[in-house]
Design brief:
The complex is a heterodimer.
Chain A lengths: L1 E14 L2 E14 L3 E6 L5 H8 L7 E6 L2 E2 L5 H11 E4 L11 H11 L6 H14 L15 H13 L5 E5 L7 H18 L2 E5 L11 E6 L2 E3 L9
Helix pairs in contact in A: 3-4, 3-5, 5-6
Chain B lengths: L1 H32 L4 E6 L13 H10 L4 E11 L5 E9 L12 E5 L1 H4 L7 E2 L8 E7 L3 E2 L2 E6 L1 H8 L6 E5 L9 E5 H6 L4 H33 L1 H9 L4 H33 L10 H27 L3 H6 L4
Parallel strand pairs in B: 3-8, 4-6
Antiparallel strand pairs in B: 1-9, 1-10, 2-3, 2-9, 4-8, 5-6, 7-8
Helix pairs in contact in B: 1-6, 1-8, 1-9, 6-9, 8-9
The chains are: A alpha/beta, B alpha+beta.
């Protein structure tokens, strides 16, 4: 079932008098409980597409349909609300808050998403998710004491604690070695299937591709016709 | 930590200078400052100068008769000599009967307790060049100064002999009661303090220093809060990306400012009170709670403005820039 789609997205950047079209009428849809990977060379427009889809920047034209609404017509505040409550984010770097423990990172996200839960429920949900990402034994640790892989696991838990419908992951394995990278993509794959959200992942990492359901290749601002099962399991 | 130290140092300096300003103010006019709020009256032709003022005896009699708590008083600077012929400067004060001032009989004198440090004891005989007899020290009063000199209360007859002036210089009526008389000029306590030579000039200089310190601290607050927040631009950008509200970010910035400022002010308040205990006896230092509270409120306002200015910068942060940067 399609839960999210972008239609005819165009993005033009102006650099003085020169205008450059980064996205040239892109269409994309995400299915519930499936991972979609966006691949392509640097400058192909994949990260721009992800950030537009996630409401982090606006498109020059086109529609973003989610939950029966067109996000491109919503005010910045309404888009922020959607980002906080319905979307989750994982970036190349974990970007954890340095002065909060692992557990507090997740509790902060519950506050950001304004999740109405009792203290007990919050603690239980945090514990459950930390178990899923295998970080419950480090719940009192600060980011400075975590390894790169552990940080990224916490970042994934933070992105999912408020039960988002869509997870946007921008190069989540780029700063990890191949072993950790495989562990993280496996984790993302398992969580997407278990928790039934949709994941859009931008990556350069070809080793990631066997773990995703769909692969979309971008080149020069357009999506190339791709044979899905070319990479997927 | 750095910001907290800066706020501590600046607020400590400001509180200490305020303590000195207040101390000097007390040293200059505690005799007047310790009186309840009310009104002073000088003769209209005295050009707002208390020692040129002469209250008409009939007006004085009338006022004292109609206002039970009214007082007539005179103040003149002068010298006393002890048995060792040591010269002691004093502000001689004589008053009509009043609960606000000690009652002194002819031939007696009641002096400020700073005279004790000069070896004066109860029962000592003190002399004055203009007085043909000595005055017996009957007691001491706590911290009563005028024009940086310790106050010496004398009987009106002794005062008249010393200065050859029968009329009192001023009238004081506590409370809201005012009297209308074309021969009298009315002053509030504050206005009367300004009529004391050197008081305004001294206080103005110190007040200017205090406000400059507050201004400088305001700039430092703004700069340091900005620097502190600039270091966290990545963090704020990520928080914005994941959907945090600007109101929540402002609440975080203000809470941070409040905690840092409160700790720094608490330490500087403790430091300035410790300083008042350790300051040499001769140093006029007085820092009451209300002055500390007022200055603390000013510091909180200044801190709030500094934090808000940096918050407005954070509002402009593009989450995308933060995402593209490395880990914080």
């Amino acid at each position: 079932m399609t839960v999210f789609s972008v239609n005819d997205i165009r993005k033009t950047f102006s650099n003085g008098e020169v205008e450059e079209e980064i996205l040239k009428g892109v269409h994309l849809s995400l299915q519930e409980g499936e991972l979609t990977a966006l691949i392509g060379a640097s400058g192909s427009g994949k990260s721009t597409l992800l950030t537009i889809a996630a409401g982090l920047q606006t498109a020059t034209s086109g529609n973003i349909l989610f939950d029966g609404r067109n996000l491109s017509t919503l005010s910045a505040n309404k888009v922020r609300d959607v980002r906080a409550t319905q979307f989750g984010f994982v970036f190349q770097f974990a970007h954890l808050v340095p002065f909060l423990t692992v557990e507090e990172q997740l509790l902060l996200m519950l506050d950001v998403a304004e999740v109405k839960q009792s203290k007990k429920e919050r603690a239980a949900n945090v514990q459950k998710l930390l178990q899923l990402v295998e970080m419950d034994h480090r719940k009192d640790a600060y980011p400075s004491t975590l390894s790169g892989g552990e940080k990224q696991r916490v970042a994934i838990a933070r992105a999912l604690i408020h039960k988002p419908k869509i997870l946007f992951a921008d190069e989540p394995t780029a700063s990890l070695d191949s072993k950790k990278s495989k562990q993280i993509i496996t984790l993302l794959h398992n969580l997407t299937k278990t928790l039934h959200f949709s994941t859009l992942i931008v990556t350069h990492d070809e080793e990631v591709l066997p773990f995703v359901d769909h692969v979309i290749k971008m080149q020069d601002g357009v999506i190339l016709p791709t044979k899905d099962d070319m990479y997927t399991k | 930590m750095i910001l907290g130290s800066i706020i501590f140092l600046v607020s400590f300096l400001t509180l200490s200078i305020s303590g000195l300003a207040n101390g000097l103010s007390q040293d200059n006019a505690s005799l007047i400052k310790d009186l309840p709020e009310g009104h002073f009256y000088l003769s209209a032709d005295a050009e707002e100068t208390y020692n040129l003022s002469k209250i008409d005896p009939s007006i004085q009699k009338d006022v004292l008769k109609n206002h039970a708590d009214a007082t007539a008083l005179s103040i003149q600077m002068g010298f006393l000599h002890n048995a060792e012929e040591k010269q002691l400067s004093a502000a001689f004060v004589t008053t009509s009967d009043s609960p606000l001032f000690p009652k002194v009989r002819q031939g007696e004198i009641i002096v400020d307790n700073s005279f004790k440090e000069k070896g004066v004891k109860i029962g000592d005989q003190l002399t004055n060049d203009q007085l043909n007899r000595s005055l017996t020290v009957k007691g001491f009063v706590e911290k009563k100064k005028f024009s940086h000199s310790p106050v010496a209360f004398v009987n009106t007859q002794d005062y008249t002999q010393m200065y050859g002036q029968k009329e009192m210089q001023m009238l004081f009526i506590p409370g809201d009661t005012t009297i209308a008389n074309k021969d009298l000029q009315t002053f509030s306590n504050k206005a009367f303090l300004k009529a004391i030579p050197s008081y305004s000039a001294e206080q103005l200089s110190l007040t200017m220093i205090i406000w400059f310190l507050i201004l400088i601290s305001g700039l430092l607050f703004a700069i340091f809060f900005y620097m502190m927040n600039v270091q966290k631009i990545g963090l704020y950008g990520i928080l914005k990306a994941i959907g945090i509200k600007m109101t929540s970010l402002f609440a975080m910035i203000w809470t941070q400012m409040f905690v840092i400022t409160a700790i720094a002010l608490l330490l500087s308040a403790l430091g300035s009170q410790l300083f008042s205990l350790l300051a040499p006896d001769g140093m006029p230092y007085h820092l009451p709670i209300n002055v500390m509270t007022q200055l603390s409120i000013v510091f909180f306002i200044v801190g709030f403005i500094g934090a808000t200015l940096s918050g407005l910068q954070i509002k402009k942060i593009d989450p995308l820039q933060a995402i593209q940067k490395g880990d914080m």
